[in-house]
Amino acid sequence: MNGLNWFWIGLAIVAPSAAGLLAAWPLWQKGQPIFGNILGSSVIFGAAVGLIFRERVEIERFGQQCLDQGTVCWPAPSAFTRFAVYAFIALVEIMMLFSVSLRIEHRVRRRGYAPEWR
User: Fold this and answer.
1) Do 105 and 36 touch, CB atoms closer than 8 A?
2) How many CB atoms lie within 10 A of CB 9?
3) Reported pTM
4) Domain span at residue 94?
5) In angstroms, rounded to a whole number, what is the distance separating the alpha carbons of residues 107 and 16?
6) Total structural domains in the chain?
7) Beta bridge partners of 2
8) CA distance 41 to 95
9) How many CB atoms lie within 10 A of CB 51?
10) Which of 23, 52, 82, 115 has the fewest beta carbons closer than 10 A?
């Protein structure tokens, strides 16, 4: 088990971001940015935890296969590094979600004023 699984890392970059935005968007449009951020962040965080557990199961299977063969194997990179990759991706996605939220909130706030006062 050498190297990272780039398919799952790519999926962690694309899918939770899109799902978090789709979950938060209706609440942002209704003028509830805090609840939208909470919902979007929980979707992203939940996906990251799920992907970390998937990686853990894969590492456990690899370790068990090595033990069945009568050897001791260590994954490269380490489990911590693998988990940290997914956690860092989730952190960046949540920061991006909050940045988008600020822009949407600004637009929603401004649409309540007449164009000549904007």
Assistant:
1) no
2) 16
3) 0.86
4) 8-18+74-110
5) 24
6) 1
7) 76
8) 9
9) 24
10) 115
Domain-located, residue 102: yes
Q: What angle do CA 86, 91, 92 make, to 5 degrees?
A: 100
Q: What is the total residue count of the chain?
A: 118
The single-letter code of the amino acid at 94 is I
Residue 35 domain flag: no
pLDDT of residue 1: 67
The dihedral formed by the CA atoms of 113, 34, 24 and 118, expressed in degrees to the nearest 10: 20
Q: List, in order, residues 6 or more apart from 31 with CB less than 8 Å away.
A: 108
Average pLDDT over residues 92-118: 87
Omega cis (within 30) before 77: yes
What is the token pair recorded at 59?
Answer: 């590492």
With pLDDT > 70 as the criterion, what percentage of the chain qualifies? 98
- The verdict on residue 84 lying in a domain is yes
